[in-house]
Amino acid sequence: MEKKPKISEEELDRIIEMAWEDRTPFEAIEAQFGVSESQVIELMRREMKRSSFKMWRARVQGRKTKHLQKSPKDMDRFHCSRQKGISLNKISKR
């Protein structure tokens, strides 16, 4: 059985947010918070409504961008290329 790390409310919110993001791999969550993929799934099951969990689980299961090993080789490691245009919480005007 995996050891469960102690997580603050703020960290819990961030983990859920990262898990919902399509381009954030489980490995990034583990690197930042020490929470494995199976622990993230368990956490999402516990914290979400059943219907929301089922929808999320169906969406991320087997998704290439949620697993670094399945990701395209040119994909930046922990963030989407579109994030590079955003700095200091200001989105560049078009």
TrEMBL record:
InterPro entries: CHP03643. It comes from the Bacteria. This is TIGR03643 family protein.
